[in-house]
User: Which sequence fits this backbone?
């Protein structure tokens, strides 16, 4: 930690964090990055549900309506005021640009008015950091499998803020595949949690969907072939006038996804000689994935960590945690910081 940095209150840093990259407007207050004093999440799921997915323009407008309310609530719940804050952490990418700009402009205005630093945060890094909040003793290095609606990454987390991306999806993200398959079956958005529930009562061996492992030494993923296979199956059953058991389709699809994710995560951890595997992102809430990883990691002698469900999906507390490590390592942003829709993990602007 730089000697120049000292908290306003002399004891610990207070972070105000803001997240608005997709369809959750969220604000949080944290003490030194790992203790969450408040984490207010206003989800727009009900608004987007009727469109079957997130409508970017609608998301931006909703963020504008919600952001001040969410921030006020976060401060109130934490029992602090804006003047107590040491810096403001905010997601500036990746995400929907219009949505990102709402949180970012708010954070910039507040940082300017309060004359405190602005700390731009990468959303994917935020997902990884959710685990530091969940487990106060977790420290790098570890292997992280990030599975969300927009991202699928296998990352060697070497240190705080230091990432080696071993593999990523070449087409659909895992959550995206869940959502698209669910939509084709006429299930509600977001499809991930619905498929998770249905899979519990379905037979995962009823339909043999393809598993895409790609090249033998590759840690990349591909889910579009699997998604197409499910869509073809649904169409062919309909054309033949045959019954579609949604719970069996859900279980068989989910099993195909999990098999590849678990295999590659274990293989990568072995290759990098890491003893801990960490899950992150919205799909980390999936009970089938958690169970399968629990079983395999136990068998193979790895430690497994994952965040509680609220910390898996988008929230500002995880952004506040990432902001803290950026801040104490000297990474602050200027007020020209822009929203970067395709910001890469490990990239700083
Ligand atoms: O991390 P997140 O909130 O947003 C992104 O950064 O993308 O992830 C949202 C994704 C959605 O695709 C949603 O369907 C999926 O996470 N998801 C799940 C579950 N809960 C959320 N997928 C599978 N099983 C779940 N239980
Ligand atoms: Zn996310």
Assistant:
């Amino acid at each position: 930690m730089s000697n120049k940095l000292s908290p306003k209150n002399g004891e610990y840093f207070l972070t105000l964090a803001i997240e608005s990259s997709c369809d959750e407007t969220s604000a949080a207050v944290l003490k030194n990055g790992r203790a969450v004093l408040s984490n207010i999440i206003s989800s727009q799921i009900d608004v987007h549900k009727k469109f079957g997915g997130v409508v970017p323009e609608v998301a931006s407008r909703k963020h504008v309506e919600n952001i001040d309310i969410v921030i006020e609530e976060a401060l109130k719940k934490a029992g602090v005021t804006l003047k107590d804050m040491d810096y403001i952490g905010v997601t500036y990418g990746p995400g929907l640009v219009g949505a990102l700009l709402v949180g970012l402009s708010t954070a910039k205005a507040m940082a300017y008015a309060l004359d405190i630093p602005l700390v731009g945060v990468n959303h994917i890094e935020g997902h990884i950091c959710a685990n530091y909040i969940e487990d106060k003793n977790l420290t790098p290095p570890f292997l992280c499998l990030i599975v969300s609606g927009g991202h699928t990454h296998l990352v060697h987390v070497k240190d705080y803020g230091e990432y080696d991306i071993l593999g990523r999806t070449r087409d659909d993200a895992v959550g995206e595949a869940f959502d698209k398959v669910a939509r084709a079956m006429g299930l509600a958005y977001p499809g991930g949690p619905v498929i998770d529930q249905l899979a519990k009562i379905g037979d995962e061996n009823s339909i043999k969907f393809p598993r895409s492992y790609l090249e033998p030494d590759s840690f990349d993923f591909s889910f579009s072939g699997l998604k197409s296979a499910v869509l073809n199956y649904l169409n062919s059953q309909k054309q033949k006038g045959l019954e579609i058991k949604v719970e069996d389709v859900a279980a068989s699809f989910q099993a195909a996804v999990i098999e590849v994710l678990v295999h590659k995560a274990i293989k990568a951890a072995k290759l990098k000689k890491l003893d801990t595997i960490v899950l992150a992102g919205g799909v980390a809430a999936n009970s089938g994935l958690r169970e399968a990883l629990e079983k395999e990691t136990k068998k193979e002698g790895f430690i497994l960590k994952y965040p509680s469900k609220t910390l898996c999906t988008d929230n500002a507390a995880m952004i506040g945690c990432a902001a803290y490590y950026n801040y104490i390592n000297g990474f602050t942003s200027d007020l020209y910081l822009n929203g970067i829709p395709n910001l890469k993990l490990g990239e700083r602007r």
